[in-house]
């Protein structure tokens, strides 16, 4: 893939393109298959983003009733039936690796699919452009409006556009903070001025960034700021399906009249009628006929624009389509196109997604709902008692990840018979073993003392295992440590 700056009229004339100010792009409205797909994805993704915080999920009286929420104060993340504790942040790592693999797979199959359809920058820019078209009209009208001198009409249109943009941006920032607190309560607090300062600050920051990025910077983010096009270009291969102008079919291009003239002269006339509809529909200002370019986000809108032209002039659709340069070359030399979806890289990415997904699922299904962390006293490491026994002290934290209070019996493994265990704050004991209670979805810390048996000759260091057993379910957790005697 090459960086064809000359191909992009948004970047000025060849020679001065590197330092020229960007020219404003006025993409025209298009209708067709890919536009419909983009609308569908836009509605689904934005609908999900804006309304998900209001979906309720009953986790009992001691946990938030919001389906998706990051509870920073409580140090928990909730995703429907899944509750993630801080020490389980590896799930997030797994999700990020999965997302990266999915991105690589998309890229190997069809280039910048993510950029064209799913990237938040694309989705919000699409929405902002729809508002722009609604308030200022389509491409030609907007160009004329920008050229026209200021009037009440122009002011009204511009003001309505910016007002609606700001409202969307504000709601975007507002929706974001709702993921960090109980949404209905926070909405009330925000409206009555009682929400935390951080909530207002984040709404302000996100309102500004959404308005700036989706309203004003648009394609500049994709072309100049985002690193993905560069990475993507290094990862792609000749079989990936990119939005491609099939020059074998389109060239030599020319108006309909010129085409007819060429045909009358017995010369080949391409299907491209040089109408510039593909260029005028492009949100990044790319003329795809100049070849695959980094600026192209693979949104497919030029395909729709060109298909509409082909339909009008009675030619088969698909002069621009998801294809690759290799196939265009093959066809131009009279050989059939060759599509190869299954290739080593697509197989490896798909396999990695399946393996990582399976490992994560296994870890999720078999995760334990109790845990025990042990910290041995540092100073003193051990204490010789007047009766000859040795005492070791520990700070033990017990985790109860279930939404109900639980009782655990403390146990000890690998210490000689007669070892005494004392838990400060224990609720009771059974057979000499202390019982402790831990509240729902809580951790509780205990001071634990171990006394070696009377008369036992303890080695310098004895590996031991602390054990807790749920008195009701028998669920068990263990943690290893040492008993020090010298
Ligand atoms: S060239 Fe076509 S696919 Fe690429 S960004 Fe422009 S409209 Fe989208
Ligand atoms: S829209 Fe199609 S016919 Fe028109 S200039 Fe682009 S490629 Fe040629």
UniProtKB/TrEMBL annotation:
Superkingdom of origin = Bacteria
Q: Does the keyword S-adenosyl-L-methionine apply?
A: no
- From the record, give the transmembrane residue ranges: 37-55, 89-110, 163-181, 193-214, 347-365
Q: Which residues form the 4Fe-4S ferredoxin-type domain?
A: 262-292
Keyword annotations from UniProtKB, A to Z: 4Fe-4S, Electron transport, Iron, Iron-sulfur, Membrane, Metal-binding, Transmembrane, Transmembrane helix, Transport
Which PROSITE patterns does the entry mention? 4FE4S_FER_1, 4FE4S_FER_2
| Gene Ontology CC | plasma membrane
Return the protein name. Cytochrome c oxidase accessory protein FixG
């Amino acid at each position: 893939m090459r960086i064809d700056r000359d191909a992009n009229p948004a970047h000025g004339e060849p020679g001065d393109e590197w330092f020229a100010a960007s020219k404003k792009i006025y993409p025209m409205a298009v209708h067709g298959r890919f536009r419909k797909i983009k609308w569908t994805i836009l509605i689904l993704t934005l609908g999900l983003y804006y309304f998900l915080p209001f979906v309720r999920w009953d986790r009992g009286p001691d946990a938030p009733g919001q389906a998706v929420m990051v509870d920073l104060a409580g140090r928990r993340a909730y995703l429907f039936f899944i509750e993630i504790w801080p020490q389980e942040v590896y799930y997030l790592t797994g999700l990020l690796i999965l997302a990266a693999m999915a991105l690589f797979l998309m890229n190997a199959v069809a280039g910048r699919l993510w950029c064209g359809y799913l990237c938040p920058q694309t989705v919000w820019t699409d929405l902002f452009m729809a508002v722009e078209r609604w308030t200022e009209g389509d491409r030609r009208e907007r160009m004329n409006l920008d050229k026209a001198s200021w009037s009440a009409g122009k002011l009204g249109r511009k003001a309505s556009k910016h007002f609606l943009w700001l409202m969307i941006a504000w709601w975007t920032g507002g929706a974001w903070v709702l993921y960090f607190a109980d949404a209905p309560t926070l909405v009330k607090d925000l409206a009555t001025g009682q929400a935390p300062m951080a909530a207002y600050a984040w709404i302000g920051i996100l309102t500004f960034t959404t308005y700036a990025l989706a309203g004003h910077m648009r394609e500049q983010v994709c072309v100049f700021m985002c690193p993905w096009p560069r990475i993507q270009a290094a990862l792609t291969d000749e079989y990936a399906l990119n939005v491609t102008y099939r020059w074998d079919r389109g060239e030599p291009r020319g108006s309909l009249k010129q085409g007819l003239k060429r045909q009358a002269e017995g010369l080949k006339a391409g299907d491209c009628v040089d109408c510039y509809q593909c260029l005028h529909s492009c949100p990044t200002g790319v003329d795809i006929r100049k070849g695959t370019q980094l600026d192209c986000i693979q949104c497919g809108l030029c395909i729709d624009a060109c298909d509409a032209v082909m339909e009008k002039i009675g030619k088969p659709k698909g002069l621009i389509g998801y294809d690759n340069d290799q196939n265009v070359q093959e066809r131009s030399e009279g050989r059939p196109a060759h599509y190869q979806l299954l290739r080593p890289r697509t197989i490896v990415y798909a396999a990695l997604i399946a393996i990582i997904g399976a490992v994560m699922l296994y870890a999720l299904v078999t995760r334990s709902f109790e845990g025990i962390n042990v910290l041995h006293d540092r100073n003193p490491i051990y204490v010789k008692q007047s009766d000859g026994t040795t005492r070791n002290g520990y700070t033990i934290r017990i985790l109860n990840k279930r939404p109900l209070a639980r009782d655990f019996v403390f146990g000890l493994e690998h210490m000689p018979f007669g070892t005494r265990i004392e838990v400060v704050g224990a609720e009771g004991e059974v057979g000499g073993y202390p019982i402790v209670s831990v509240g729902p979805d809580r951790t509780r810390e205990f001071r634990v003392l171990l006394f070696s048996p009377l008369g036992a000759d303890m080695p310098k260091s004895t590996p031991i295992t602390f054990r807790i057993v749920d008195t009701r379910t028998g669920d068990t957790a263990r943690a290893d440590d040492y008993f020090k005697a010298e």
